[in-house]
Task: structure prediction
Amino acid sequence: SSAGANLAIRAVCDGETGIAGLICRYGYYGDLAPGGDLPPMLVVHGEKDILASVSDARAFVERVRAVSSRPVIYAELSGAHHDFDMFESIRSAAVSEAVEQFTARVS
Result:
């Protein structure tokens, strides 16, 4: 999540191998330019995130989809801010369920 999502993506873009999939929640992706096939990804971002721009997340997902043959799933949460899953809620439970489904699919 957040900076951790950025670090995970950077590691893969820098050639880290052996990663089955990436789960990236409200990360900052800026101008990251991934190349080649990347592991499957689940990117979850809040529409109202003021710390990590939702437009940057959307653009990043499109850049990854353009170069990778593996699935890139993007979920944008309407009305959600940064750290939307910090406290238990219906929204955080739904994100947890999506993460479980994603990990079952890529393992």
Notes: The helical segments are 3-13, 54-67, 90-106. The first helix runs from residue 3 to 13. The radius of gyration is 13 Å. The CA atoms of residues 14 and 20 lie 16 Å apart.
